[in-house]
Amino acid sequence: MLKIALLYGSTEGQTKKISEKIRESLIEKGHKADLFNLKSDQKQIKLNGYDGAIIGSSVHIGRHQKYVLKYIKKNIELLSRIPTAFFSVNLTAYEDKAESQEKVKGFINDFLSKTNLDPVITTAFPGALKFSQYGFIKRKFMKKITSDVLKKEFGEKSSDINMDLELNKDIEFTDWGEVENFTEI
Which CATH architecture best describes the domain 3-127+174-182? Predict the structure, then answer.
């Protein structure tokens, strides 16, 4: 049985949801997993005594959360003593195009170079569009910048997409099977 620290930063809740699924999966496999929100729980985290750490952060406007970067930099010495894994959550990870996948690698490499984290494994999970949390302007902006992702998900059903947006429905792109596979340690 391993004792794993799950450290995450989440802006709209999808990275938290993914972290909770990872925790649940690790517990089902017989491990102990403690979940920490790096925005609110930093003072409670004591990395000594953990066999490993999994760090998750979401990308917004091309960057991971500053508070996650800051925490990792501050605790890199302790994190360097145990195996770590890192996952990034972003909508670009949903796109199959080579250009998009290079962009995702760039997000991850940028995070790793800024923090000096050297994880055993890295991955990216597609996130979600949380339209129910967006105001009118952000909803329209997100619709515009994610039109390729939405077309891939819904094909040419643009009227369905527009209806979902008007009804403030969230659209989740996370592949939960991929999340489950990530916990095979």
Answer: 3-Layer(aba) Sandwich (3.40)
Tell me the pTM: 0.85
User: To which H or E segment does residue 109 belong?
Assistant: helix 98-115
Where do the structural domains in the chain lie, given as residue ranges?
A: 3-127+174-182, 131-169
* pLDDT per residue as tens digits for the range 32-79: 999 999 999 888 899 999 999 999 999 988 899 999 999 999 999 999
Nearest-10 crossing angle of helices 147-154, 158-166: 120
Q: Coil, strand or helix: which one is 85?
A: strand
CA distance 100 to 143: 18
| Distance (Å, whole) CA 97 – CA 99 | 5
Q: What is the pLDDT of residues 100-149, one digit of tens each?
A: 889 999 999 999 999 999 999 999 999 987 877 777 777 777 776 666 66
Half-sphere exposure of 39 (CA within 13 A, CB side): 13
Please check whether residue 122 is in contact with residue 87, taking contact to mean a CB–CB distance below 8 angstroms. Answer: yes
